[in-house]
Amino acid sequence: MAVSDARLAQIAARFAELEARLASGTLEGEGFVAASRDYAELEPVARAARAVQTMRAELASLAALDEPDAEMRALADEEMQALRGQLPEAERALAIAMLPRDSADVRPAMLEIRAGTGGDEAALFAADLFRMYERFAAEQGWKVDVISANASELGGLKEVIAHVAGQGVFARLKFESGVHRVQRVPVTESGGRIHTSAATVAVLPEADEVDVAIEDKDLKIDIYRASGAGGQHVNTTDSAVRITHLPTGLVVTQQDERSQHKNRAKAMQVLRTRLYDLRREQAQGAEAEARRALVGSGDRSERIRTYNFPQGRVTDHRINLTLHRLPEVLAGPGLAELIDALTAEDQAKRLAAMDD
């Protein structure tokens, strides 16, 4: 999809205007925040547009060159050929930069992992997945804060909810939602047989109070004594909180903190994020249906990836990509290749849809 020269000029003019406004020192408060956000969103588009403009201008200049010297003319033709080879890729990069963006892409995310079928082995696998995302987050310079965790007796995780903050967290992790399957010999298996277990991953864009207004009358809040592992405060104080959102039936429980107030605040953070995700799905409608055709729905009922330990491979079933580098994926670095491939597939399908 080639962008017209007039459109390139519009992008350049808009970016120059934003630069001038921010440099003027006259913007304050919300005006400065809004202009800064617009600048950050437009900057990659303007950079890609500038590259296309430069290439087109150089091609036009070389084509108009009236050079009688045969050797110089040959050099000019060679340069033109190189630019013609580079221009389509620059135009594609611009088209990708101009694709409509999910407004949630820049947000932090709530990462929820739950053990599925497979008992203790599923909980151990859920813990492996969480460590994988922790390592990947560390490489990206993100911060991971555990909101709640329910450990199994063997050191696995029946459930863990964590807040992940940093640059472009949701954009990078949003395709991780779904069922992750593992095939390996469990530590509890004495006969050496390979078992299949699963864990579900959900990645939700974080919401704040501005996004989702929750009225007190819509909440049922139960306070009770915490149970399970947790230290001296367990079963001694009424610090655990269960919040039910009556209009939707969503239920969030939190008991990891000693303080009832802290547990309530964390539970409200999780509830707000789940409500925001629910409303996003409802608002997207047909767009959500289209995304399901690209790289999967992200629904937790959909099997998206298999981690096969005996063969040392990871297969993403949505794009039929297999990497024979299982340890590297679980260690964090290899996960980036899977995420990049999913992002590229999504971009390619959306570009194709725009051309149709």
TrEMBL record:
Family membership: Belongs to the prokaryotic/mitochondrial release factor family.
Name of the protein: Peptide chain release factor 1
Originating gene: prfA
Annotated NCBIfam families: prfA (TIGR00019), PRK00591.1 (NF001859)
All residue ranges annotated as the Prokaryotic-type class I peptide chain release factors domain in the record: 225-241
Keyword Signal included in the entry's annotation: no
Gene3D superfamilies in the cross-refs: 3.30.160.20, 3.30.70.1660, 6.10.140.1950
Cited Pfam families: PCRF, RF-1
